[in-house]
Amino acid sequence: MKISNEHISKILREIAVYLEMQNVPFKPRAYEKTAIAVADLSEDLHALYEKGGIKAIEEIEGVGVSIAEKIEEIIKTGYLKYYDQLKKKTPVDVSSLMSVEGLGPKKIKKLYQELKITNVEELERSARAGKIRSLEGFGEKTEENILKSLEFLRQAGGRFILGYIMPDIRKIESDLKKLKEVKKIIVAGSVRRRKETIGDVDILIVSSKPAPVMDFFVNMPNVARVVTHGSTKSAVKLKNGLDVDVCVVAEKSYGAALNYFTGSKYHNIALREIAIKYGFNLNEYGLFKGKKTITGKTEEEIYKKLGLDYIEPEMRENEGEIELSSEHKLPKLIGYNDLQGDLQIQTNWTDGSNTIEEYAEVAIKKGLKYIVITDHTKRLAMTGGLDEKKLLKQIAEIGKINEKLSAKGYKFKILAGSEVDILKDGTLDLKDEALKKLDVCGTAIHSYFNLPKEEQTKRIIRAMENPHVDIIFHPTGRIINRRPAYEVDIDEIIKAAKRTNTVLEIDAFPDRLDLKDDYIRKCVFAGVKLAIDSDAHLVSHMDFLEFGIAQARRGWATKDDIINTRPVEAMLKLLKK
DNA sequence: GCCGTTTTCGGCCCGACTGTTTTCAGTCG
Predict the structure, then answer these.
(1) Residue A502: pLDDT above 80?
(2) Shared fold status for A5-156 and A262-330
(3) A262-330 adopts what CATH topology?
(4) What is the DSSP letter of A340?
């Protein structure tokens, strides 16, 4: 049996919880750290082990001899004796119980010892029967909170897709901003780091009169319940299930608090460890030496005092950015206003809802200089995909609209493109003679998602080898929270992209964000060019470009790595001849 | 259990809030 990285990560995470149940010091953190590292690994552990043996496993950050041996045992046998022993002592469904808000290792242990609770169903039954309130350390309130938390888990399932929830977040931000007591406000946390999905929202406020701010916040009309209501920190759950935390700080601590609440947790831990080496102490109030304040007002100052260059929030994942920063080698990330064009747009010629002209008008308003029309092709019959004849007609239509725009004095260009379907064998569903007529030829997979990895990889590489194909759209095909990526060897894809001079797309659609961040990083390191496109099916979808840029920044991409940061002629020059 | 330009042994991030407590453990971020 082949063991996935997620499976190994889950076992390691559960071991951390079990050790914490037994009050074992420090080891839990070692296991937890490794669990995260394994989950984030872009390479398959199984493959890594086959290639490099246990030595290769030990290379992973945070993995030493002992954990490497345990990972080896899981890969070889499918089991881990150490884990089984721990599980025998407390045979409970750790992962699901840990996802219940308010429950941690100690409480889970108690619930098992006293009430023999092993899973969320039994937890719910006991809570409903009022059996939990009488346990030592528990009470009526705890029992109530457990039931509420279970209810939420049932309906929301956890994480929100950033691009879809962002309008709600910005509304709360602007409502709070209107209060006269609010001097400064910023959304920190995973929202500021622009993670593709978020678990909650952390809002930071500077105010010398926090009480009215807190009162307004917990009484907002869309609040379902108040989780905590303190003098400087409050938390609510909204009716849509989103958790929002607000923290009020003094101006002098703003930078430290912003840094603290932006995270990531592991970026912060690394910063505090650096602080300790300097004899400092870093917390959410500032950077201190004993009782003396060194700084705290801005993030820039804090990084500087730690000998670091300022690190953009999108990079703060403790993935090597701190080392680069200390060597003054951080990349200059692409900016949110750097795009000049959008290279993937579907119109009402196929499954889009707006006309070519409507897209052009909105794009001009957004300040873009060009767009590429990329309707589907004939194999996608359900979308009314274009055949060679219809495509020629569309090219002629685009020419006419360009003339109209230019007559009106606009310096804006609509380019003819396509989202040509890649067939099962890697050939395309339109003839080369038609493709030749396009300004930009994009291609994508829309079928046979379940091919074996090797075949799927070959299929895409064959498409890239077509001399007319400029871009591969959404290269891994995942849809966040709905379906996983199809199996491809991303390293081979990237190698082939470099060799064939094919551009890979960062699809900005909020539930795609395909490529994901660490694949983008691989492209950047390999020198493969990328494009950020909205994949719009409606004019309003062009607003999603922002999230594509965010994703590119999370992947450490610079302006130069993204072809559509350039004027139209320069962009076209980068494509295949 | 991991790690090292202060260390191969002796450290390991830090504070707020809640609910249970009469001074604090557990959880969270």
Answers:
(1) yes
(2) no
(3) Beta Polymerase; domain 3 (3.30.210)
(4) -
- CA-CA distance, A372 to A356, in Å (whole number)? 10
User: Is the CB of A230 less than 7 A from some atom of nucleic acid strand B?
Assistant: yes
Dihedral, A559, A561, A563, A564 alpha carbons, nearest 10: -30
Q: Which of residues 179-208 of A touch strand B (CB under 7 A)?
A: 189, 199-200, 202
- The least confident of A222-226, A397-401, A511-515, A538-542 is A222-226
Could you tell me the pLDDT band of residue A383, with boundaries at 50, 70 and 90? confident
pLDDT, one tens digit per residue, over A532-558 is 999 999 999 999 999 999 999 999 999
The structure's pTM equals: 0.84
A277 is near strand B: CB distance < 7 Å = yes
CATH number of A158-249: 3.30.460.10
CA of residue A27 to C1' of nucleotide B10, angstroms: 15
Could you tell me the residue ranges of all domains in chain A?
Answer: 5-156, 158-249, 262-330, 341-573
Checking each nucleotide's C1' against the CA of A138, the nearest proves to be B20
Extract the runs of DSSP E, i.e. beta strands, from A104-212. Answer: 160-161, 184-187, 197-198, 200-206
3-state secondary structure of A333: strand
Adjacent-strand bridge partners of A419: A376, A442
Q: How many residues in total does chain A contain?
A: 577
**Domain A5-156: what homologous superfamily?**
DNA polymerase beta, N-terminal domain-like (1.10.150.110)
Q: Look up residue A440 and give its amino acid.
A: V
* Residue A139 CA, nucleotide B23 C1', distance (Å): 18
Candidates A32, A63, A44, A33; CA nearest to A6 is: A44
Query: Straight-line distance from CA A2 to C1' B25, in Å?
Result: 42
Q: Which CATH class is domain A341-573?
A: alpha beta
| Closest nucleotide to A24, Cα to C1' | B1
3-state per-residue secondary structure call for A349-407: CCCCCCCHHHHHHHHHHCCCCEEEECCEECCCHHHCCECHHHHHHHHHHHHHHHHHHHH
